[in-house]
Amino acid sequence: MTTRLCLVLLLLPRLLHSAELTFSWEFPRAYDPHPDRFVLTSTGSGGTPGTLHEHAVPWHPASACASLPEPGPDIFCARLPCPDAGLYVFWLAAEWGEKTSAKTNLLTCQIRAGDPTCQCTEVDQVIKDMTTAAQAAILASPSPLLASLPTPPSVPTPSAALSEILGQSAPT
Length: 172
What we know:
- The protein is an alpha+beta fold.
- It contains 4 helices and 8 strands; from the N terminus they run H-E-E-E-E-E-E-E-E-H-H-H.
- The chain has a domain at about 20-125: Immunoglobulins (Immunoglobulin-like, Sandwich), CATH 2.60.40.10.
- The chain has helices at about 1-15, 125-140, 145-150, 160-165; strands spanning about 20-25, 35-45, 55-60, 75-80, 85-95, 100, 105-110, 120.
C-alpha cells in the first residue's frame, strides 16, 4: 500500500505541469473537396532554435472542438504539448494529397519561463507591455546625465543679431 501511494505522489507533479497549447481556426466545412488534413507548423527560440515542427491535424467533426470558448460549425482545432519558453511563430496550411494551400500566419507569441498554464502571449501585446514598462522606468528615475548638463546660453532673436551685424540698433 505504501509503494502505491509513493508512485501516485511521484506522478502528480507531471500531471499538474502537463499544460498544452490549443489552436483554433475557421475553414468552411462545405468546401468540396475538403482537405485531407491541416499542417500546423511552428518554429521558435525555445527548444532547438530554428527547427521546424510540423503537426498533422486530420479533418475532424465540429464536435471535436466543442469545448472551446467559441465553438462553431466551421471551427477546427488542435492541441499541442507546451513548448519550452521562448518566442514562436505558428502557421497553418491545408493539404489535399500532394497539393498544399498557402501558409497562413496563425500566431506569433511568447511563452514565458515557469508559466504552468502555457500562456502564449501575442507578440504585439508583449511589445506593448515591454514599452510601457520601459517608459515607466525612464519616467520614474531622472537621468543623471540630464541633471548634470549646464543651462544652454540664450540665443538672440534673429532681428537683434542681424542688426548687430549691420551696425544698426534693433527695432523695438
